[in-house]
Write a structure and sequence with these properties.
Elements lengths: L5 H4 L3 H28 L2 H13 L8 E5 L2 H15 L4 E3 L2 H4 L12 E5 L9 H9 L4 E5 L5 H5 L2 E4 L15 H21 L3 H7 L3 H6 L3 H4 L8 E3 L4 H11 L3 E5 L5 E6 H7 L15 E2 L3 E2 L5 H11 L3 E5 L6 E6 H6 L4
Parallel strand pairs: 1-2, 1-3, 3-4, 4-5, 6-7, 10-11
Antiparallel strand pairs: 7-8, 8-9, 11-12
Helix pairs in contact: 2-8, 4-8
Amino acid sequence: MTSAKAPLQSLSGEAAAGDLAAARRVLAAASGALTALAEALDGDFTRAVGLILAAQDYPKPGRIIVSGMGKSGHVARKIAATLSSTGTPAYFVHPAEASHGDMGAITRQDVLLLLSWGGETAELSDLITYAKRHRIPIIAIGANPDSTLIKAADVTLLLPRAPEACPMGLAPTTSTTMMLALGDALAVALMERKGFSADQYRDLHPGGSLGRALIRVSDLMHGISEIPLASEDASMREVLLVMAERRFGCVGLIDAQGGLTGIITDGDLSRHIDGDGFLARKASAVMTRNPKIAAPGQLAAEALAFMNEHKITRLFVLEAGARKPVGILHIHDCLRAGIA
């Protein structure tokens, strides 16, 4: 049988060494350029963050309109997606399409974020003119301080004149890496200035593993009206009725103040049910004290791991520092939500 890896195994040592050398050269060029970019950042970066935040403070908040042509356009799309997913509404407008009607999507409350290495991209000229006519702020990312784009911008984020990594020095490689990283830096700085939380992030990422990883106990738990509860002074007859009605396979026992003091499970029943006068016995004589609990704000994945660790299938949910149950979480609730 011919191995699928045979072509790779037949490579000469010289060819393989050349491939690795090329890869390392590209990565070294990118690393050096990013270091230079980090060192060159100044107050203009803070002004860019402030300009974006100010646009979102309008009675009708503005958005970030990101645009660029060619490879810069592909990077611009990614920056817009990252900003939107981290709490800063943004979208990409193709500069050529903008000249044919898409300009109408841009409002005076918005901010333009325009990308161009040389700063003379012809397709951006109509966007620049439109922004100036309607007093829409421009943040420019480019490397030529004497270019049309940089001179027209309200805030400029200059990139170091690092050489491209391709052998001819022509294909956008190092330059687009810097643009991409600078877009990520803007998104993270905005997140931190806004105090963007994990819960907000989850709201914007309800699908996939990211959404599931951030689901809280409060999102899955059954509320107060469904909690199987009985007084610790109740008879076992009453406890069994509650257990049958609620169908969680357990009953939480509460004191006169409503605080959780114990739990009766199927296992407790099997250990005690053969005793004389079982149905007349008080719940406090059968219950297990100090039951395992969860908090509403706890990650559901943590609660699931806790249940697996202790070989239990449900947790009463108590507010932090409180004794009164506010919900109950069953292991099946976690599994149905795709948490594993």
